[in-house]
Specification:
heterotrimer; A mainly alpha (291); B mainly alpha (390); C alpha/beta (243); B: 390 residues; mainly alpha; 16 helices; 2 strands; 1% strand; globular; C: 243 residues; alpha/beta; 6-stranded mixed beta sheet; 9 helices
Chain lengths: 291, 390, 243
């Protein structure tokens, strides 16, 4: 096997692992802190991607600027979604069902608006798709570098926020004991709404990067399930650094597998990684964060 | 006569009546489409019933019905076409293969102490798509080229293609629903319900939770694949995209949720209703709207009719019977629509409209006080933390 | 004749040592009181004995089995049952169904039909026949606690672990619960009672074991143990006891 090829696969895998981490962060936070498995996050990633595609294509905005657009927009969407969940007073089982219903609805909407045709931002609107930086014979695609940097920023930022800010402490308090937190003047519902906004914003952000280098189709979410859940479980629920680390591992393993056994093997290898994690380290490769 | 004897007699009567339908259709020279409509309904009744045996009874949420379906389709496909096995032999083998796969999954996930339920749900979500990639990958299975199932020989006694499909699906559907009923009224069933309510406590009372979950999962996978195998014939040309998509897992969930997951009749009712409605939407040319409606319907049902349509029919059985049969009679007698199936679907819609009236309003309208089943009542206070202190 | 012999049981949660080398025993037909200030490890010991958590170290020999090596279902089959401090009924079932399910699976396996009849006996014993066919969300806390008892009893145990069965009850309910505990004991069942209400525990128990910060600091006759200076210090040094 060509060493250069392997090295390239590993490095690209590392970078895309950052993207995987961002994709998984929303669900991981939702599940770990809010105790809701929110499948709608996959459609948020999808919507983030399609929105980026549409606005860059229609208005010629630089895709990177979409970060500024998507983040607040999706924050609000996520907050509203949590308000809905709080109002509905659903338990975990029902929230799973409802989020699945939302997943179906949003996917349908994407298909209705943008049809099932493949979409890709044109190279004039998106010069980054084919741009690469070369270091030591290995090509680092610009969108992937950006996604990786964003992932690190998100992981570090979230982790620091959880441990050092008042809000972070409030989150950890609510996760441990919502009633007690209320006795200390913390409103669990407000904490949940803000957290959900943040998680959704992360998902939207992941979509922006995906639009920068991938071809979009309404059913692309299905390919994400295995990857994202592998990262979530390997990384441990609600742990930002865990998600980052797990994302990198999954990215590298899937990348190398693609090169060695062909791209179709990647989902299978990722899944086997998930199964192995469940068998040997069910609480994740990294210790759970306080949340 | 005990309740059990009565129910089993009911099954026998239904089997005979439905079994005679092909003969009736032939004698009356009715459109063969009625048979297709019915056997597709049997398909969905079986899939949603077998799904409910696992998810409804035990509370372990499975998104993986598509996986068992797919294994059934591909196993019969390969055995019957590439290896020339007789179809009726390949069929149960497909069931067993899926059963084994399910048990393998259970072996990994069911032993987890924490988050077993959630992780099981997510793993089943990923399984179908992983299987799809495996199917594409190996030339021994598909290699991306698809399998031709049309022209697969079937035994003569089953009749022509349509009648064969009808008879096979009827038998499997009856077996699935019968199994769901027998489990419902058994120690296994009650054990599963206790797992659903509180698995930790159930174990402490002596319920063999691992064994029971495995049984439910294996049964679910077996019947899912059995019906999948038959359906391979209906699909005709089997491809990965056709088989491993979100349709089967999604519809099955909706059907069971709509019909009610707490009773073995729930998925039957739910499948009948949902299939009729989607079928009519398709033939009216509104196929695209389908999925949004399905998603919305799922959410509405989860929030609004928690116990499911079937139990609500039982609670309002007089009104349901009168409205449904009255509507059917009026529509057929006055020849208001173009086919019996349209009559059926309109009658269903009218009945459902009545059933969706919220219970408090209904009780006021009919001046009756029916105690709603526990699952229909939202919790009044926050549920206290269930872990013991110190 | 020792029914249960615990030797050097230890359990850590992260950095906290919940139980540290706890050794004690229970004799047949005995009522053992398990007391101690908050955080002393009482509930943890119950959780280990009933198989909810795995112990890090030690043994709990019951007959010829070590409870600490058994999964919860086998512990129930061996004849050990427990109740929960905050009741955990099966909330989609009626009261009767809760007890029936328990009877079906407990110490000996019984059929569905047999369970329906047998449940009536336990419902009568705990005074719950009036609400037998109600869904559990209509029950008061006191009734829920009695349901916990009925369910545990339906598994036909030889040893019953009661985890703070009196918590949250008013004085009348407490008295009724004490009567119930005595009647349970009259059936020949050995009891371990974890309790904060010291006057109740000392009057009910044959023997008392006092835990403090995961260790046994005293064990023996109730009155003597409660006057032991080490025990008094543990309580006053920690949280105040409910006398």
């Amino acid at each position: 096997m060509d060493v250069d090829l392997l090295a390239q696969a590993a490095v690209s895998g590392l970078l895309i692992g950052g993207l995987y981490a961002t994709m998984a962060m929303g669900i991981s936070l939702s599940w770990g802190a809010l105790k809701i498995i929110n499948l709608a996050h996959f459609t948020f990633i999808l919507l983030g991607a399609y929105l980026t595609y549409q606005l860059t294509t229609t208005f010629g905005i630089d895709p990177f600027l979409m970060i500024v657009v998507v983040f607040p927009l999706f924050f609000v969407a996520g907050a509203l979604l949590q308000v809905f969940f709080e109002w509905a007073k659903v338990d975990e089982f029902r929230s799973l069902l409802i989020s699945f219903g939302l997943f179906i609805i949003f996917t349908s909407l994407v298909r209705t608006v943008w049809t099932a045709d493949f979409r890709r931002i044109s190279s004039e609107d998106n010069p980054y798709a084919s741009a690469s930086i070369f270091i030591g014979g290995v090509a680092l695609q610009v969108p992937l570098i950006a996604a990786f940097i964003a992932a690190v920023v998100i992981a570090v930022g979230t982790s620091l926020a959880l441990s050092h800010t008042h809000f972070g402490r409030a989150v950890r308090a609510v996760v441990q004991d919502a009633e007690m937190a209320r006795a200390f003047g913390i409103d669990p519902r407000r904490v949940a709404v803000i957290l959900s906004g943040l998680a959704t914003a992360y998902s939207g952000l992941a979509g922006v990067f995906i639009a920068m280098f991938q071809v979009l189709s309404p059913t692309m979410t299905f390919a994400w399930f295995g990857i994202v859940f592998s990262v979530v479980i390997l990384g441990g629920l609600g742990s930002p650094y865990g998600a980052l680390g797990a994302g990198i591992i999954v990215g590298v393993v899937a990348g190398v597998a693609s090169v060695v056994w062909g791209p179709l093997s990647a989902p299978l290898v990722t899944f086997l990684l998930l199964i192995a994690a469940l068998l040997f380290r069910p609480s994740g490769l990294f210790r759970r964060s306080p949340a | 006569m005990t309740a059990r004897t009565k129910t089993l007699l009911g099954f026998a009567i239904v089997a005979v009546v439905l079994g005679l339908v092909p003969n009736v259709v032939e004698v009356l020279d009715a459109p063969g489409f009625y048979l297709t409509f019915l056997f597709t309904m049997f398909f969905w009744i079986s899939q949603s019933s077998s799904w409910n045996i696992l998810t409804g009874y035990s509370g372990y949420f499975s998104f993986g019905q598509g996986a068992w379906f797919g294994i059934g389709v591909y196993t019969t496909g390969i055995l019957a076409t590439k290896h020339g096995w007789p179809f009726l032999v390949a069929l149960p083998v497909a069931g067993l293969v899926a059963g084994a796969a399910g048990l393998l999954l259970g072996l990994v996930v069911f032993r987890l102490r924490r988050l077993s339920g959630e992780i099981f749900a997510l793993t089943t979500l990923a399984v179908s798509f992983v299987l799809a990639s495996v199917a594409r990958l190996t030339s021994l299975i598909d290699g991306g080229r698809g399998i031709f199932m049309t022209g697969t020989p079937l035994p003569e006694f089953l009749g022509d293609f349509r009648t064969s499909m009808y008879r096979m699906t009827l038998v499997i559907a009856l077996l699935t629903v019968l199994t769901a009923y027998l489990i419902f009224e058994s120690r296994l069933g009650w054990g599963l319900f206790s797992i659903r309510d509180d698995e930790e406590v159930a174990r402490g009372l002596g319920v063999p939770t691992f064994r029971y979950k495995m049984t439910a999962l294996g049964t679910n996978a077996f019947f899912g694949a059995l019906m999948g195998g038959v359906w391979a014939l209906q699909i005709g040309f089997v491809t990965v995209e056709d088989v491993f998509n979100i349709r089967v897992p999604l519809l099955v969930i909706l059907m069971a949720v709509l019909g009610g997951m707490r009773h073995w009749m729930g998925p039957v009712v739910g499948a009948a209703i949902i299939y009729t409605l989607t079928d009519r939407l398709n033939s009216a040319g509104l196929a695209d709207v389908n999925q949004v409606i399905i998603g919305a319907l799922l959410i509405v049902m989860v929030l609004g009719v928690r116990e499911g349509i079937y139990l609500r029919i039982r609670a309002r059985w007089i009104a349901s019977g009168v409205i449904f049969f009255g509507a059917m009679a009026a529509l057929t007698v006055f020849d208001l629509t173009s086919s019996l199936i349209w009559d059926f679907s309109y009658a269903l819609l009218i009945t459902m409209a009545m059933l969706l009236i919220p219970t408090p309003l209904w009780e006021r309208l009919t001046r009756s006080r029916i105690t709603a089943p526990p699952s229909d009542r939202p919790p009044e206070q926050p549920v206290p933390s269930k872990t013991a202190g110190t | 004749m020792n029914l249960l012999t615990c030797t050097s049981i230890s359990k850590r949660f992260g950095g906290i040592r919940a139980l540290d080398g706890v050794s004690t025993s229970i004799e047949e037909h005995e009522i053992l009181g398990l007391v101690g200030p908050n955080g002393s490890g009482k509930s943890t010991l119950i959780n280990l004995l009933s198989g909810l958590y795995a112990a890090d170290d030690g043994q709990a020999v019951f007959g010829d089995r070590d409870l600490l090596r058994l999964p919860p279902e086998k512990i129930a089959a061996a004849g050990v049952a427990r109740t929960f401090q905050i009741p955990r009924p099966f909330d989609t079932m009626t009261v009767r169904e809760n007890v029936s399910v328990s009877y079906m699976f407990g110490h000996r396996r019984h059929s569905l039909e047999a369970a329906r009849d047998a449940a009536s006996e336990w419902l009568a014993f705990t005074g719950l026949e009036a609400v037998a066919d109600s869904p559990v969300d209509q029950l008061t806390l006191h009734q829920l606690k009695f349901l916990e008892l009925a369910r545990a009893l339906a598994t036909e145990p030889t040893l019953l672990l009661l985890d703070e069965v009196l918590a949250g009850l008013n004085p009348t309910e407490i008295d009724q619960s004490i009567e119930m505990i005595k009647r349970i004991h009259e059936r020949g069942i050995a009891l371990v009672i974890v309790e904060h209400l010291l006057r109740v525990v000392t009057s009910l128990s044959h023997r008392i074991v006092v835990l403090d910060q995961g260790r046994v600091i005293a064990s023996g006759d109730p009155t003597e143990v409660m006057e032991d200076p080490a025990v008094v210090a543990a309580y006053l040094g920690g949280s105040r006891p409910n006398a």
